[in-house]
Specification:
binds iron/sulfur cluster; 9-stranded mixed beta sheet; 20 strands; 351 residues; alpha/beta
Length: 351
């Protein structure tokens, strides 16, 4: 496949280029690649190496993203391309996100949308690896997807520039922004090789300005990333800047990649985190990766009625009125889109 010129970069002296896609803003010399390894400078022109090359494609339930308040029950075509701008030592997709070679199968934007249509999906999710670093691929796919009535969702670490949000914003309907360890800057530096977390908060404000539906996740990691003080601060920031109805998912850690000596997060720690988020004023806190836990469900914040019952990524009981209100007290539950009845069996990987 021919190289595809990158978006969002500036030419500099001596055939160098400055990438403006993610908050690293790499200055890349001639014949070198950026930190993500997915963008290469060739004689002063920046090329994306992962355009139209998918490392994974699968039909997923939208609850897996996780999105709990956006088109519930929908199924999405999930795609990913190689590379990442983080170096998380616990990454569960490290085989594709940290590979030094940009691998992948030809799967053009039009192919993605065609496959989504054939598999009865309602949207496209750019996920598994970091979609920011395959922006050109996602952007072209998202535009075609909108033309045929599909929605688009980024599952992202949020380390985007405002220019990147400005570019994809008009085509992005929902974003799941993943934090780790309550956003602890020292954790990000030492475990994920991220020098500064501030750009993530700035990107979130930009996404909000673009009216993108936002759900936040936070990975709770025993001992090194389970501070309740940080979870309280994060929940307070979400309430103040994104709104108290923003869904906040507290995710259970599982040992993986280079971080195999840290155990799975105890459920009691997650329950404490859940209560901390609720006490900070968030209406919709959830626990993730704990199938069957009552905190997977949605409760009416006014009367505590169980309005959506879930098991893992699936909805097992829907108890809202047609116009998304609590059937007991009439409180409006913020759900964007509509309920999609699904008969699909997951997971369903194309490759
Ligand atoms: S996307 Fe980020 S990591 Fe990759 S080259 Fe651009 S600034 Fe660097």
């Amino acid at each position: 496949m021919a190289l595809h010129e990158a978006m969002l970069y500036e030419k500099q002296d001596e055939k160098k280029v400055k990438c403006k896609l993610c908050a690293r803003r790499c200055l890349i010399s001639d014949n070198a690649t950026g930190f993500c390894l997915a963008r290469k400078n060739e004689s002063g022109t920046l090329f994306t190496l992962n355009y139209g090359k998918a490392v994974s494609a699968a039909v997923d339930p939208i609850g897996k993203k996780p999105l709990s308040h956006f088109n519930p029950g929908a199924q999405v075509m999930s795609i990913a391309a190689a590379g990442c701008n983080f170096r998380c030592q616990f990454c569960d997709n490290w085989m594709v996100s940290q590979d030094h070679e940009v691998v992948g199968r030809p799967f053009s934007p039009a192919d993605v949308v065609k496959a989504a249509r054939e598999k009865n999906c309602q949207g496209i999710s750019y996920t598994y690896t970091e979609p920011t670093i395959y922006m050109e691929y996602a952007y072209d796919t998202a535009r075609i997807a909108h033309q045929v009535g599909f929605f688009n969702n980024f599952v992202t670490n949020g380390y985007m520039t405002p220019e990147a949000v400005e570019t994809i914003g008009p085509y992005l309907d929902a974003a799941t922004v993943d934090f780790k360890a309550g956003g602890d800057p020292d954790f990000y530096k030492s475990v994920s090789a991220v020098p500064n977390v501030t750009p993530i908060y700035e990107a979130l404000k930009e996404l909000k300005l673009h009216d993108v539906h936002i759900e936040i996740t936070n990975l709770v990691i025993p001992k090194i990333g389970d501070s309740m003080e940080r979870i309280k601060d994060m929940a307070t920031w979400i309430k103040n800047y994104l709104g108290k109805d923003t869904p906040f998912h507290l995710l259970r850690f599982h040992p993986d990649y280079k971080m195999t000596t840290i155990p799975t997060t105890p459920v009691e720690t997650l329950e404490k985190a859940y209560m901390t988020a609720k006490e900070a004023g968030l209406n919709y806190a959830y626990l993730g990766n704990v199938p069957g836990h009552p905190a997977e469900n949605t409760y009416c914040p006014n009367c505590n009625e169980l309005v959506i019952k879930r098991y893992s990524f699936e909805i097992t009981r829907w108890n809202l009125t047609k116009d998304m209100h609590c059937p007991i007290c009439g409180h409006a539950i913020p759900i964007k889109g509509r309920l999609h009845p699904t008969g699909a069996t997951f997971p369903y990987a194309l490759f």
